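Re: weekly structure request thread

Next one in the queue (153 aa):
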Amino acid sequence: MKIYQLQSKQYLPIDLDTAWDFFSDPKNLKTITPDYMGFDIISGADCKMFPGQIIQYWVSPLLGIRTKWVTEITHVIDKQYFVDEQRFGPYALWHHKHFFKAVDNGVEMIDIVDYKLPFGFMGTLVHPILVKPKLEQIFKYRTDKLVELFGTI
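Done, posted below.
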C-alpha cells in the first residue's frame, strides 16, 4: 500500500492576484492539461473555487481509457493555497495541494500530489513504467504552457 508523491515548483513573472485568479477558476484546468488527456469538464466549473465544490470531468489518464473523475475542493485560503481531492476516479488516493507565494518579480507556485494506485501489487509494478512518467509528462506540459501564457522569471 505505497503512497507516492510528486512535487513541482515553478516561478512566474505575474503578481499574486493574477496567479490566484487564473488557478482559482476551474475552467483554466483544461488550458493547462494536454489535449491527449481528453479533458472535458462536465460540471462544477461555473464559478471560482470554494471549499466543498465538486468538479466532474472526463479524462483519459492512461492508454486512452476514458473515465469520469470527480474532485472536491476541500480547502481554500485566498491567495495562499487550495487542495483538491479525488472522490471518484482512476486513483485509489489523489490529494493535490497548490501553494502560492509572492516573490521578487513574480509568484512561486508549489504543487504537492500524494497519490496511491489501485490494483495492489499490479499498481506498484506499473507505477515506474506507466504512471510516474505520465504524471511527470503532464506536469511538464503544464509548466511549459504556463511559461507560454505568462513568461518566465
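Residues 5 and 130 are 15 Å apart (CA to CA). The longest strand covers residues 65-77.
Next request, please.
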